[in-house]
Amino acid sequence: MGEWQDISTAPRDGTRIVVYREGYAESMCIALWARDWDDWLTVPGGWQWRPEWWQPLPPPPNTGKGEGV
Known about the structure:
Elements: E1 5-6, E2 17-20, E3 28-34, E4 39-43, E5 48-49, E6 53-56
Antiparallel strand pairs: 1-6, 2-3, 2-6, 3-4, 4-5
């Protein structure tokens, strides 16, 4: 995975990213910026969330089954 970056630098184009917020039971999750909500939403679930840090998702594992499987 990459380096943690301030959430103000995160992509706001619907890209799914790993986000972090200290002090929560589920402090790390996947989220995306939802323009309609003007906020970060968790994936899955769709809960509004106020992360402090982000980094890109890691690449998927190479399972040898080909893309899209």
